[in-house]
Amino acid sequence: MLELYHHGSSVCAAKVRFALAEKGVVPDEMHYIDILKGEQFDPGYLKINPKAVVPALVHDGNIINESTVICEYVNDAFDGASLVPDDPLARARMRIWEKAVDEQLHPACGELTFVSCHRHIVMRLGEEKLREFLSSTPDQSVTSTWKKRKQEIVRLGFEAPGIEDTIRMYDGYLFKMEAALKQHEWLAGETFSLADIALTPYVNRLDMLNMSGMWTDGRLPHVEAWFNRIKSMESFAPAFLEWCPEELTNDLKTFGAQSWPDVKRIIGMN
Ligand SMILES: N[C@@H](CCC(=O)N[C@@H](CS)C(=O)NCC(=O)O)C(=O)O
């Protein structure tokens, strides 16, 4: 029995859906946790994931948290083409990408997503529910500072301290990807791997926010070609687009487009 707890716009959940699909594994049950309405703070869910984050995988009653660990687990536990390269060097590169996502790019994505879109969505909760939503985040959540960061970003938007450095760091990762993709077809080497699975949600997030100008028009041609290859994969739309409710897809597009001039200015594209 395989169950996935997930959300439509969660980059970490999309990563796991992508890995499952590429492995040819279909969960028996999908549980939708609306993290923009605070369903991650439900005491029942906290028993599964005490950090109040998605995704969580439950396999025959065993709970596996942390999307990178889940993807490695899915690769090891199920038959199907391996998503880990045979070559030890490519495997090491793959794990460096996974580590970079966990340590830097994912926290940066939370900040970019909230400052450019999700802050507007959670404000619809109204002041009382918003305060409850913000104070419910556990001390150990997306990061150990996420509770404070989320509050600052929701309240201050692009005026939040450090937000510009975060956005520049996110952009810097696109340049790191460009450098790697100049060397080989996929991020870790000549074969598609968990590195590509790990990075796709972060490029797709920018795409859904209407910020593809960060790599199109000749800015990062290897990233553009790589993302086009990924978008043409059969698993892409089900893993990345179809679980995102229409209203949320539209919000990402609309609020993202409104924020694009600020992002462009911050990364020096004007
Ligand atoms: N390190 C965790 C991070 C998971 C995470 O940050 N999930 C986000 C969605 S992508 C979440 O559930 N956020 C809930 C919140 O912000 O309260 C993983 O890789 O699984």
Give the key terms.
270 residues, alpha+beta, Glutaredoxin, Glutathione S-transferase Yfyf (Class Pi), Chain A, domain 2, globular, binds glutathione
Write the layout of secondary structure elements.
Elements: E1 2-6, H1 11-23, E2 29-32, H2 43-48, E3 56-59, E4 62-65, H3 67-77, H4 88-123, H5 127-136, H6 146-156, H7 163-183, H8 194-208, H9 221-231, H10 236-241, H11 246-266
Parallel strand pairs: 1-2
Antiparallel strand pairs: 1-3, 3-4
Helix pairs in contact: 1-3, 1-8, 4-6, 4-7, 4-8, 4-11, 7-9
In total, the number of domains comes to: 2
CATH topology call of the largest domain: Glutathione S-transferase Yfyf (Class Pi), Chain A, domain 2
Number of helices: 11
Query: What topology, given as strand order, has the largest sheet?
Result: 2-1-3-4
List each distinct ligand once: glutathione
The rounded Rg comes to 18 Å
